[in-house]
Amino acid sequence: MTTSPPVAGSATTDSATSATSATTLTRYLDVDGTRFAYRELGPRAGVPLVLLHHFTATIDDWDPRVLDGIAAERHVIYVDNRGVGGTRGRVPRSVDAMATDALGFIRGLGLTEVDLLGFSLGGFVAQVIASREPRLVRRLVLAGTGPSGFDGVGQFNRRLLTDTAHGMVKLTDPKPFLFFTRTSNGRAAAVDYMERLAERSSDRVARTSLGAAVRQLAAIARWGASAPMDLSRIQQPTLVANGEDDRMLATRGSFELAHRIPDARLVIYPDAGHGGVFQHHGRFVPEVLRFLG
Fold first, then answer.
1. What's the CATH number of domain 2-292, 3.40.50.300, 3.40.50.1820, 3.40.50.1370, 3.40.50.2300?
2. Which of 104, 179, 214, 235 has a Cα-to-Cα distance from 53 of 20 to 30 A?
């Protein structure tokens, strides 16, 4: 395992700690022949929060208000999994394999205890990690996600496939359609969100390729079709959050997670969809900080 310096130059611990999501440098970590791209924010103290992202997303796709808000008090690490963004290799075709990669990255950093925040597909991965490595994960945040083998999880409706394909062919982002409600509030939130994602103007990673997206879809479908995971094995305190009208991963899956994980609490945001935690970042960030505190 080797750690490579940021491609844009070197940075002291102080400068890295004071950076924002728009300025923090991309770093690289070699683990068993795979070079993982990641970024860090916030004070380098306490239990770090590792973020795992959604279908087709890269480290450029985390909402800056969520990143900077949490990093005001916590050490935040966010990473591109294998075959996505700045990380080399081929995307695994199963969530279990993605979890193995994420665990390799976490251990490659020398971390022995972490908090996890998994959004959407990243929430699937976070569930596996928390179940597989209970001593590693202290607390768990599951946003816009659902349990394996649950109706409406991993089942692709026409709108999801059409909007995703349209975005990749036209080089436009389908998230404004997929993540937000079509109400006036939802449309305005979508515009604000996309403007925030553009705040980082340099040192960005590559967009997810069509081939990588297809392999992710295979992993998501397998997760939805698999036998339900025994969520009683997740003993960590867990915060489950979603919008009330999630058309990508049915909101009822969040209710199911909160019901089946023994020590879980549920937060549902009004007039919000799959990206409810981004639309309501002003509520979500303090909620996460209180929960992790």
1. 3.40.50.1820
2. 235
How many residues are recorded in the chain? 293
pTM assigned to the model:
0.90
In this structure, of 16-30, 95-109, 131-145, the range with the lowest mean pLDDT score is: 16-30
Rounded to 10 deg, the angle between the 64-71 and 281-292 helix axes is 30
**What are the pLDDT digits (tens) for 184-197?**
999 999 999 999 99
82-106 residue pLDDT tens: 999 999 999 999 999 999 999 999 9
Distance of alpha carbon 250 from alpha carbon 156, whole angstroms: 11
Q: Which residue has the tokens 């940075």?
A: 11
Six token digits for residue 237: 């305190």
- Among 276, 282, 280, 70, smallest CA distance to 175 is for 276
